[in-house]
Amino acid sequence: MDAVSLKNIHKTYDKGNVIAVDDVSFDVKKGELFGLIGPDGAGKTSIFRILTTVLLADKGSASVAGFDVVKEYRAIRNRVGYMPGKFSLYQDLTIKENLEFFATVFDTSIEENYDLIKNIYDQISPFNDRRAGKLSGGMKQKLALCCALIHKPEVLLLDEPTTGVDAVSRKEFWDMLKDLKQQGITILVSTPYMDEANLCERIALIQNGKILSVETPENIVKAFPVTLYAAKSDNNYKLLTDFRNFDAVASAYASGEYMRIIVKDEHPDSITLLKDYAEKFGNRNVEIKIIAPTIEDNFIWLSQKEANH
Amino acid sequence: MKQLFVFIRKEFYHVFRDKRTLLIMFGLPIAQILLFGYAITSEVKNSHISISDNSRDANTEQLINKIKSSSYFIVDETSLSEQEIENTLKRGNVRCVLVFPPNFGNNLLHSGKAQIQIIADGSDPNTAKTLINYLTAIIADYQQEISPAAVLPYVIVPETRMLYNEEGNGSLNFIPGVMALILMIVCTALTAVAVVKEKELGTMEVLLVSPFKPIFVLISKAVPYLVLSLANFTLIVLLAVFVLNVEIKGSILLLFLVSTLFIITCLSFGLLISNVTSSQQTALLLSIMGMMIPTLIFTGFMFPIENMPWVFQVISNIVPSRWYFLIIKSVMLKGLGFAYIWKEVLVLIVMTLALLGVALKNFKIRLE
């Protein structure tokens, strides 16, 4: 049995004018660390809210921990840990008070499942008497995670837990998720950061409410169907504009230091071809090489394919 | 049960850590009571008047002294010239001018008849009428004094008495009204805001995704404000008794019981507002603006309901504070017992149950 399962879920807002979730289906296996990857406005939060039973889908069915999200919502509410995208703790209560409150609301105590949160709680317990509103972003996330874990949930639903958190805290956070996975908790996590996708066991790429692909990160990268070229010059902006006007180039987009280029027809001499073209237009110090695609490249490839449909 | 207790304790933390809420809760009532008790008063006291004494004899002096000694008037000037009369009134320095014609005393003693002119500033007709009444009464009194032997064939002496408020203390009417007003606004606004705050912060989302029953959320929100409102009510009563000298004639216990009932009515209304709003601003605007005007107008302590067009009279029936005002007036000022107020209490109970029912039924177990 899958821990989370969605079948043809549709969700619209504004009387059907805004499509948030468009025919989404995917399953999360028990004990899996599953990532929902997509930009802002892709429909991630809507999916989380449908799964946590606080939002009703227009069409389709979904289940969490084996319970239907509509009919058996009470059972689900007992069994999931949920961390909404917006920081949702009481700013005017201290760390300890927040934790105690959520423990009681979930009918348990801090001591009962202490081993589960110990590693995380130890990092914030020195500030037990500090109010949540006065904590740093990273500490807030840790506290929120503690609160979501306090009742030892079967399924942990984390909506963009690392958004707005510094790089070090983000890494720590993912380490904590791995620890939790070891303890048998199913985790569904969403993020807009493509680099975090590799940390998940399986990911679903989502854009405009549509699932583009559900795979392991390795397979998604492997499935990249064409050769990807990376290029840079003294003036990357000019180079990019020139390549976009080049007949032989299917697509060109900026990505960090090197821009990415996909050619229309694969050719053993593509590098020379691109370089000659670039230099003809006055670009200097042009450097072109073949590069291994990342999740982000896949995402762009898939969303362009989807857009051309 | 423990969950409920912890939840309620959490609400108290919120209240005591938020200075603004505390200020609204306890500052507003004190300010209002003092404002209504002192500044805004319907009594006419210490009115400035001037006198134009064109006679200057023993009689005018006696009469002027009599006027001076009453607490209603402050006599600014006694020898105003005719030309100045209108100017003084125009400038608004005085409310009223008393004019003694020449030979006032002579006429009075010899022909047995003298005239006196009272010119009042009619731009505030109520005050003007009251002042004229006071002056006429003082003059009549003086007339009696100087002619004790006058044999009038028939005399009707009206003996008036202001029951329940012998001294004509204006705060007596205002206090119950202000109580109703404050409780209505403070209870409604604070409860509504407390619930909506959770929605705005996103904590409601987490609470919904918990085994905690939604009904308990509402109960936990209402209980702290019930306790605080009762403390508030006690404060108002203390202020009324010790600062504004209002005497409580009826049973204190009954007063607190009916007030608790009214507070619950207001809390239910606040919960209802929290159901239909999603931001603190809207909730606050709705509960303060939406409540303030109807409460002020339809409670009956500012404008008598009997004088309103029948449409408004009908509308006033659905304003809870109107009934509470009637109850408080009966218990506090007239010292009546439960037998005299059970109808109003029943109306409040029915209103509370209806509001609470709708609020609970409309409470969303989901976000939309």
UniProtKB/TrEMBL annotation, chain A:
Gene3D superfamilies cross-referenced by the UniProt entry: P-loop containing nucleotide triphosphate hydrolases
InterPro entries from the UniProt entry: AAA+_ATPase (IPR003593), ABC_transporter-like_ATP-bd (IPR003439), ABC_transporter-like_CS (IPR017871), ABC_transporter_ATP-binding (IPR050763), P-loop_NTPase (IPR027417)
Transmembrane segments: none
Record keywords, A-Z: ATP-binding, Nodulation, Nucleotide-binding, Transport
Keyword Transport in annotation: yes
Domain annotation ABC transporter: ranges: 4-233
GO molecular function (one): ATP hydrolysis activity
Entry-linked Pfam families: ABC_tran
SMART domains listed in its UniProt record: AAA
Family membership noted in the UniProt record: Belongs to the ABC transporter superfamily.
Family matches, as PANTHER family: ABC TRANSPORTER ATP-BINDING PROTEIN, ABC TRANSPORTER ATP-BINDING PROTEIN NATA
Full protein name: ABC-type multidrug transport system ATPase subunit
Source organism (scientific name): Albibacterium bauzanense
UniProtKB/TrEMBL annotation, chain B:
Major place of residence: membrane
GO function term, MF aspect, one: ABC-type transporter activity
Transmembrane region(s): 21-40, 174-196, 222-246, 252-272, 284-304, 340-360
Record Pfam families: ABC2_membrane_3
Localization of this protein: Cell membrane
Keyword annotations from UniProtKB, A to Z: Cell membrane, Membrane, Transmembrane, Transmembrane helix, Transport
Entry's Gene Ontology cellular component terms: plasma membrane
InterPro entries: ABC-2_transporter_component, ABC2_TM, ABC2_TM_bact-type
Domain named ABC transmembrane type-2: residues: 139-366
Domain of life of the source: Bacteria
Topological type in the membrane: Multi-pass membrane protein
Homology family: Belongs to the ABC-2 integral membrane protein family.
Name the UniProt record assigns to this protein: ABC-2 type transport system permease protein
Organism, as annotated: Albibacterium bauzanense
